[in-house]
Input
Amino acid sequence: MDQAMPVVALSNAAQEIWDCLVIGGGIAGSLAARQISRLGLKTLLVEKQEFPRAKVCGSCLNQRAIDELQHVGLGSMLGELGGRPTHRLLYTGFGRRIECDVPAGLALTRSVLDEALLEQARASGVEVIHEVVAQVLPTSPDASTREVRLAPTGTHPDALNDIRIRTRSVIAADGLGHPSLRKLPEFTESIKESSKVGLGAIITQSSWEAEVGDGDIHMYASRHGYAGIVRAEKDKIALAAAVNPGWMKDCGRPVDAFNQLLQEAGSQLEVERAASWRGTQKLSRSINEVANQRIFVVGDAAGYVEPFTGEGMAWAIAGGIAIADCVQLLAEGQEQLAVNRWKQDWLNRVRSRQFWCRVLSWTLRHPSRARLGTKLMSTHPLIATTIAKQLGAATH
Ligand SMILES: Cc1cc2nc3c(=O)[nH]c(=O)nc-3n(C[C@H](O)[C@H](O)[C@H](O)COP(=O)(O)OP(=O)(O)OC[C@H]3O[C@@H](n4cnc5c(N)ncnc54)[C@H](O)[C@@H]3O)c2cc1C
Output
């Protein structure tokens, strides 16, 4: 499909009152839109970028994420897209090397995965508009709808015209920092001062690719952050890291920071300079509300813990699937119940599962704790295996 030609024209979208407007076509947004549309609700998804688009991510889907997708009939898609099975973690850092088995996962780059999930949403009846930036307006035209401004980006065919959309519910699945809710004081967030920033790239060739075994997730840690390398579909290798922002600035380019981190961790690998890198804002942040007045926040938009273990997609998937029931409750006129239900579901399905990531990122934040943690895991391998199982294992 030609992504530049929206299925529904902007001006036509403005004529309707939608049951649900989903902001963001990442994992959380596409899944939420698909599940909501399958309930028979008229759903519009808006995304500011053209697809396929790159996203800073280690590309590792853990067993829990795969299990959630299987549960909604999307499991076979992962194999068809060429997702590469992963089963072992190799950690190098603070003078030690630890190997442990992890629950079976898959490595698949985000440009491929996210485009396929968005296509699944479309196939379920979701209307999709690319290259528009959404902003939820603070005032509502009436008690039963919200108003959202859509500003086409410079490359959109209707680039000159902003429009306003009316919708009975809004899903903010717009990623880190929930930019579409900036005008709404009830969704303020706090960003951890000591937070790391993310960086990543996908490469297709390297002189050292034979060092990265099929099925292995390589992780490296130093006092400045941690990095991951994994083989994904076809000949792709995913590189990602979370590093201290001040240190990264001193290193110069992202590739230099990545290589220096690997070197400090004790690895001989060196990434070629040609790779195209992307970065993120500070990662660790929390939001004070995940639902309020017909707005539901899912995925990274609802707050973030540093992604040491590749749990982020599992949280986004769990949230994207669970939110559909809340939107249905709202469509049935039970607004307060819907809001309370999402607050509870988010606590149970996402927040409670972030425990081990919080422990790990707390440990890694301070070099002496990180050194001690690494030593403990290398002398007591059962600790490493138990944590790896807790983090990735399926729930159904
Ligand atoms: C360095 C790093 C490594 C990681 N590695 C892994 C890993 O290996 N495994 C794992 O499971 N997780 C990993 N994660 C976490 C994972 O990438 C995220 O948790 C996941 O992408 C969350 O998906 P999402 O749908 O919530 O947000 P996103 O994927 O960020 O999607 C949000 C979408 O919203 C769009 N958007 C934003 N604002 C607007 C707007 N105003 N209007 C319209 N559209 C908008 C964006 O263009 C984007 O497409 C990693 C993260 C980082 C930073």
Observations:
- The two ends are 35 Å apart (CA to CA).
- The domain at 60-108+196-282+366-392 is CATH 3.30.9.10 (D-Amino Acid Oxidase; Chain A, domain 2).
